[in-house]
Amino acid sequence: MATVWPISNGRPKIRSGANTSSGRALVITCGVPSKPRSSCPIGWGAQCYLRHMVGDRSQRRRDVLETSTNLLHEGGWAALTMREVAARTGVSAGALYQWFDGKDEIYAELFTARLNRGIAQFDAMPDDLPFDDVLASMLRWVQTTWITLGRWQLDYSDIARGREPGQARSALSEAYRHILEVGSVKLQAAAEREGRRFLDDLDTMHMIWGIAAGIAQRAEILQMETERVDQMMERAVRSLSAGLTESA
Amino acid sequence: MATVWPISNGRPKIRSGANTSSGRALVITCGVPSKPRSSCPIGWGAQCYLRHMVGDRSQRRRDVLETSTNLLHEGGWAALTMREVAARTGVSAGALYQWFDGKDEIYAELFTARLNRGIAQFDAMPDDLPFDDVLASMLRWVQTTWITLGRWQLDYSDIARGREPGQARSALSEAYRHILEVGSVKLQAAAEREGRRFLDDLDTMHMIWGIAAGIAQRAEILQMETERVDQMMERAVRSLSAGLTESA
Predict the structure, then answer these.
(1) ipTM, 2 decimals?
(2) Fewest CB atoms less than 10 Å from the CB: which of A162, A170, A202, B168?
């Protein structure tokens, strides 16, 4: 994460802007001409130049996402503000708003990335897993997702539904649709191997997601210890397993 | 809800609603001692005094709770502030803090009242209901509870766990423990009537609560229509039913 130095008394300020061949780079100004580098009055010459070069657009975008994640984990939804993200990353508000229309778009991008990692994980599941193990893996994945990001999904959707659907929101919807689809295929295949049929009708996958998130939330509210939560999740798998399938 | 006129130039301020034998009355203060009543500078003496008298403690406490519920439903957790509750009800901040140490205590009292109504409802369930119907009633009750109050439970617990356990929090814990107990007894009795045994081990009742709340939350995030949510809840009951019981 980029550190921010405020401008004062000739100290450098990390600004945004400047196109380079590798994308947008950081512009550092300290009010004193720094070319040649050796003339840099605060002795940062080479380092300063280096930062110019490495601080490209994609890196700063990653900084924004990482910083946003940290803010969420430090102080929850209210702590994630465009102003604070800008301050912590040294990206100007103008540049930040060029990338994201608001904190909900940052959140959507974080959540999409998480879903895409989940899709890859679901895809990589061994083909011989029993149905209960596939279901357990999915519940646990949603549980972890709820803990790290999902708990703010309602806050996100409160904002998101108040504005025009943008690219970030579409990507999130698409990734959500996709992971449920992959999950359904995996559960169906596992059920078939056991001579059963997975009853994927009437929003079953949404329901499974809700169940896992709800249990995770209950555990958080009651401040349950990990072992107890694990047992509750196992209990959920055993309770649900039979009801989600029927003889083929 | 009472309209609030700001105090200025000795004009009366209508503060909160109060019950009288003839309905809701207003509490009026004008910042001038009104005893004896004849000394009231705005000529409202008797009426003013009367209204002072009828605006009793328990009524104003009910006003605070009703106003807090409205604030939650209008603007969520952030909208519920002691300052706003005081402003809307005309209760002084001092009095408000005598009753409640903070918004979390108001919330705890609201939630406790909701749980106590739920306990009465669970208790009143007909004795011949099938297991699935008992389970469905409970899931629906938790669903409605989540919609009206439960969605802020995590916000509440974030605050509550940072302070000494008080009376409001103990009452809430007790009511929660009690409703799970009543629910468990009802499910057990229904299962027994069907020659089954309800598997109430390993936090099963917490799990059932979490499942219902999680589905309610998913439905809210996805903005599902009522009918679709009802179907998903039915689906949950059917999926869980067998797994929650075994042959006796």
Answers:
(1) 0.77
(2) A162
